[in-house]
Prior knowledge:
α8 runs parallel beside α11 (203-219). The strands form two sheets. The protein has a six-stranded antiparallel beta sheet. The longest helix has 17 residues, at 203-219. β4 and β5 (65-70) form a beta hairpin. The protein is globular and about 50 Å long. The protein is built from 14 helices and eight strands. The chain has helices at residues 10-15, 19-22, 24-27, 97-101, 116-119, 121-132, 136-150, 158-171, 177-184, 188-198, 203-219, 225-232, 237-248, 252-259, and strands at residues 4-9, 28-35, 42-46, 53-59, 65-70, 77-81, 84-92, 112-114. By secondary structure, the chain is of the alpha+beta class.
Amino acid sequence: MNGRTRGVRITDVAAAMDLPTLALLRFVEDVRDVAAPPGQVFDVEWLPDGRTGLFFRVLEGGREGDVWVAGPRTRAIFKSKTGIARTVTLRFKPGWSVPLLGVAASELTDRIVPLEDVWGRAARELCGELLAARSRADVIDRVARALALRESQPFETASGQLARRAVRLLEGGEVRVERVADRLGVTARHLRRAFIENVGIGPKEFARTVRLQRAVRMAATSCDWARIAADAGYYDQAHLIADFRQLVGLTPGAFFKRAGGRMTSSPYMQAEDRA
């Protein structure tokens, strides 16, 4: 087992904390806490999912750390890393990069950058606070307070609202981007501009990540690839395999054979390897 991972439902976290943390319900999809003994290797698997994440790393020894932002990926990455004692990752819901981070999501696509490059001094101060945190709950609370300060700036935009509405339709089962645009009363070109700015990838690319993630979840309990392809929204099994090859770099069978039951770390740990 490569690292000890504890997933946290954001609703469970918020239930035990104050108002800044309760605000996370609006922006954060989940929280992941990963720890390992000294010298332990983390195997990192990060599949495209249209999300941006904020992650805090504690280096071995516990006296140093850093805070990074990982933008949405268009291709999977697989890496291994040592020298990390712990990470806490907050994965944002699609469409919140601009108000929370102050930067268009498209500027983060396929990139992993220090939060300091985005927030400046505020990021350095946050890192110091997180290193002093005594518990996972304290880490999350301090991040929540930092994000609450960002919320004092102009927050809601029409393009952001449009992108998030489209995300809900695509994740809710709508498969054709043109139909989503029609339902929202905009052109496909207008929808794409909103997606690029607020999600970091186009709506068609996002729809592909939705299918991919569905297939991965289904394959955890089934080996019937024809059925998985149909239920996940692919035209057929060949379509599923082609998408896996392009987005993951492996066939579905090779991907799950590679996993082999190993537990992997947070997908946002490779801060030095900026893709």
